[in-house]
Amino acid sequence: MKKIILPLLFITVHALVFSQQFIPNYDEAKMPAYRLPDPLIFKDGNTVNSKADWDKRRIEIYHQFEYEMFGAIPEWKGITKSTVISRNENALKGIAKRKEVRLELSNGNKIIPVTILIYLPVKSKGAPLFLSYNFDGNHTTTAETDVLIPDSWVSNNKDFGITDHKANENGRGKAISRWPMKEIVSRGFGVATVYYGDIDPDFDDGFKNGVHQLFDARRDSTSWGSIAAWAWGLSRIMDYLEKDQDINSKKVIVLGHSRLGKAALWAGATDKRFAMVISNNSGCGGAALSKRIFGETVGSINNSFPHWFCNNFKRYNLKEELLPFDQHELLALMAPRPVYVASAADDKWADPKGEFLSCVYASSVYVLLGSKKFAATKMPPLNSPIYGDISYHIRPGKHDITLYDWNCYMDAAERYFNMAKK
Ligand code: GTR
């Protein structure tokens, strides 16, 4: 009897302690004292003084994120085929050209289809393009009735009437508040969006579904999680965009909200073809500093989403002080390309202040590479964006991406690409 009771008692106490420790802290006063690694100090203690030094230091930081957090992407030996499957030259009441492109990522006889929905302004040739995943299917981003519904696995969702992991008509247009296509196109920008589950369905299945099927299945503690898979998918979409004559592939802005903001940041770090990188409310594992232990923590994210990061990242559960890097260094990996971080005041889970401080502490790298210093050390008031090569804003309201956010991103992109105001 004792033999059974003791282990049971141990497991129960352990589970209780563990869950207690994942109770989020929202009190600045209760945060631990923490020290952030300096992106401009090499692991051996030497200082980064020049661009050439930074190129070497960047590799050190990159590998830390790769092997300790997002996971390494195995060698890609497959091919991508692309087919335009629909065109509408008169979309959004005549202001946009729309097309859907089917990519087929394949390796041997495994094929993963990925559908890209693209809107381009009729009037502006060479328009900058926002590339951004959507959460529930391309058809949710628009009210246009002929945009395709994904065939891939989707999360069940009461609001979208999904109970069998299959998207259906009920979802059409349900996410349009997040996709102000008319406003974006009217300001001279294009949009390309893809359902993120086309690349990797967002559940813990042991990495057997999505694009993982196209790779060597052997895994170790450094192997990629889903966020790296989504980032990898953005690069494959970029491969296509580079070949599409209608697209200005030098002006592709990778943008993501929340978990997809984490993926956008890692895509920006892994692939320098993205001209600008935007993190909307990306929080823990995205733009927010982990060592602050505010809102979502490394332990809680790994506990809720064991498939997002590599197994090594789990070693830092409840031990953020041991992390050899922090998220300001993820932002620094974009330098000198512009990066934009945005928070929402009620989104405490994503730690707005931790997102802001990442911008502050990434700034030294941008300055070394010739940018102006990030223009704040204190959080700006609501709705008062700080623009520069590192941009930041915090708006009122909840975890979401709104027209206000998009307008700020377009303002920042207009400045960066020297576009005439529309
Ligand atoms: C939450 C998660 C966050 C964020 C968010 C989202 O549940 O804890 O890290 O990614 O989901 O993607 O909406």
Word description of this protein:
The chain has 422 residues and is α/β, with parallel strands linked by helices. It has a single domain, classed as Rossmann fold (3-Layer(aba) Sandwich), CATH 3.40.50.1820. The protein is built from 10 helices and 9 strands. It has a 9-stranded mixed β-sheet with strand order 1-2-3-5-4-6-7-8-9, sandwiched between helices. Strand 6, helix 6 and strand 7 (276-280) form a beta-alpha-beta unit. Helix 5 crosses helix 6. The termini are far apart. Beta-D-galactopyranuronic acid (GTR) is lined by residues 258-259, 283-284, 296, 301, 304.
Order of adjacent strands in the largest pleated sheet: 1-2-3-5-4-6-7-8-9
- Major β-sheet profile: 9 strands, mixed
Helix content: 25-40%
CATH level-two architecture: 3-Layer(aba) Sandwich
Which homologous superfamily in CATH is the superfamily? Alpha/Beta hydrolase fold, catalytic domain
Total individual domains: 1
Query: How would you sum up the global shape?
Result: globular
DSSP strand count = 9
- The helix tally amounts to 10
Strand content: 15-25%
